Amino acid sequence: MELWYTEKQTEHFGITAKIKQTHHTEQTDFQKLDMIETEEFGNMLVLDGMVMTTEKDEFVYHEMVAHVPLFTHPNPKNVLVVGGGDGGVIREILKHPSVEKATLVEIDGKVIEYSKKYLPTIAGALNDPRVDVQVDDGFMHIAKSVNEYDVIMVDSTEPVGPAVKLFEKGFYEGISKALKDDGIFVAQTDNPWFHSELITKVFKDVQEIFPITRLYTANIPTYPSGLWTFTIASKKHDPLEVEDSRFHDLETKYYTKELHKACFALPKFVSDLVK
Question: Which amino acids does the record list as binding spermidine (predicted)?
Answer without folding.
Answer: 62, 86, 155-158
